[in-house]
Protein: Thioredoxin domain-containing protein
Organism: Diabrotica balteata
Amino acid sequence: MKTKYSAILLQLITILLELNFLQALYSDHKKVIELTPNNFEKLVVKSDEVWVVEFYAPWCGYCQDLVPEYSKAAYVLRGVAKVGAVNADQHKELAATYTIRGFPTVKIFGADKLKPEEYKGGKTAKEIAKAALKSIKEKVINLLEGKKQQTTLNLNKEHVITLTDKNFNNLVKYSDNPWMVLFYAPWCGHCQNLEPHWNAAARQLNKIVKFGSYDCTVYSSKSKEYRIQGYPTVKLFIPKVSPIDYDGGRNVADIVLWVSQKIETYLPNPELLEIISKSVVIRECEEKNLAIISFLPDILDCRSSCRNSYLDILKDLSVRFKINKWCWLWSEANAQPQIERVLQIGGSGYPTLVAVDYNNRSFATFVGAFTQGNLYDFLSNIRAGNGHKTPILVKTFPAVFVVDPWDGNDKDVSASNEKVEL
């Protein structure tokens, strides 16, 4: 019995000794710096030094065999380059960031810290040191030629807004516009892979949703507030709705489709407003991409049931196109003569519809039967940037007459108490 227990005890002691060795592969080699997710970005990515980094697993025999030569390389490179090691078995997420598929894997972080070079040379200290010196030489040449070391993502500055702890609330949290926000770390490989798709999606959706980026290695309050656990993390912020976690794919088509579907689901339906004053037009359309203005027949020519049928068509279309952030207005025929004159209304009768792009000083006029299908096709072409556009010739905003809003009833319409709003 004693022999049996002695054997078990010996086996346990052996296992414990092996575990102790495995957990401390480089503990006795002070020139090899142990890297973790907590210090990797600061020591490696943000530093000016060239780094040689081994991703290892303590149980890996090849990793154990490499220890003497790797430690020797660290010693001979002291003061010239940094040498570190990542326990990839313990820090799996950090290893996944750099697409580590086997052990040991050595990467050299040189001129472009965001795209480290995988070392594929021999396993001797001399060969490892030569590779480090080659990377140092390339970095020096780049600096002499005026090329800067890249340590941040190359996000599109025109369509992707840099978010900080100071501007986040004003730009995003309390905004009336929807936002897609990327929480990232510059050293994160998945973030780097996402970068071109994020930029492309921002360009495609720039009239629908704003895109922002928040560097979690520089700022921290928002990553804590929104409990960011890994990179990249993307959240959609819609006014009066809790932030929505992005769970789609990581290419531009997936991002555009996901955003479009969420916006259609969560954004409130646009209002279809009658033009009764200039303030209505400005309030509703000032920050919109297009103004969709319909001119409906006089109430004497098209009674309430007729008018409501047109309004129902327009309301339905406003919902179907709400992702485009257009404003939707209507007016009775001849109630706003100055607007009709500028938009050249009258030749084809009523009802009619005009898509006005006031920023580009142009408009497109719908021609045809005023049906939902025809109007949908027309607006789809407008959304795609197609169709004939007529330039707006006047330089100032046309006068808007103050009129009483339609009360929904059939009645004789008089032209009483009209006045021009200044």
Q: What stands out?
A: Confidence is low (pLDDT under 50) at residues 7-23, 415-422. The longest strand covers residues 51-56. The first helix runs from residue 2 to 23. Residues 272-420 form a domain with the Glutaredoxin fold (CATH 3.40.30.10).
